[in-house]
Amino acid sequence: MLRLNNARKIFIKIWMADFEGLKKNQLQARFQHLTRSQKRLPTPEIKAPSDQEVYDQANALLDGLKNKEAFQAFTDFIKQFPNSALLPDAKYALANAQFNLKNYKATIGTYQKLLDQHPDFAKNPEALLGLANAQIQLALIPEAKKSLKDLIKKYPKSDVIQNAQKRLKVLESIKP
User: Fold this and answer.
1) Domain range spanning residue 104?
2) Are residues 110 and 23 both part of a single domain?
């Protein structure tokens, strides 16, 4: 009986070794098949969003009054797309987000850069009015008067000219 048990143990060990070897060979064959078939699959392309898509997302944040998020999104846009045709629009929107966050000093800087770097930008009349508004918030009355006078002189047919004239009239009436 002892010999039978030993024979069984030997048979089982041989059978297990064969099974493990078979299993190992089958796994290797399956792995090779899978890796070959993966090579045949096209690699999906991950397309980076365009400047228009990124700008639209940032603008949606500003429209939704999510000013902190819009501020960050436009700041990122300006860094990511320094040569974009939308750069002046992004700077203008950034200044609006800064104004909404009551960061008037930064607003002034952003509007000033916009006006200096993009003198032909279509929204420069609005930018000058925004600049004057930020200057008023910081009680920089002489600077605000100058910005409003520049706006009236440079853009006499602008849509914001009446607002500029009214604000200038109010500022002129204030006695220092």
Assistant:
1) 51-173
2) no
85 and 129 co-located in one domain: yes
Helix axes 124-137, 87-100, angle to 10 degrees: 20
pLDDT bin (cut points 50, 70, 90) of residue 117 is very high
Distance CA 86, CA 69 (A): 19
Q: Does the pTM of the predicted model rise above 0.85?
A: no
Q: What is the pLDDT of residues 62-86, one digit of tens each?
A: 999 999 999 999 999 999 999 999 9
Helices H, strands E: what count in the chain? 8, 0
Separation CA 74–CA 93 (nearest Å):
7
Q: Is residue 46 part of a domain?
A: no
Q: Are residues 56 and 108 in the same domain?
A: yes
**pLDDT reported for residue 19:** 52
Q: Kindly report, residue by residue over 51-63, the tens digit of the pLDDT.
A: 999 999 999 999 9
How far apart, in Å, do the first and last CA atoms of the chain sit? 119
**CA-based nearest residue to 97, from 105, 87, 107, 89:** 107
Is residue 20 one of the residues assigned to a domain?
yes
Q: Are 167 and 145 in contact (CB under 8 A)?
A: no
CA atoms within 13 Å, Cβ hemisphere of 157: 1
CA dist 110 and 92 (Å) reads 8
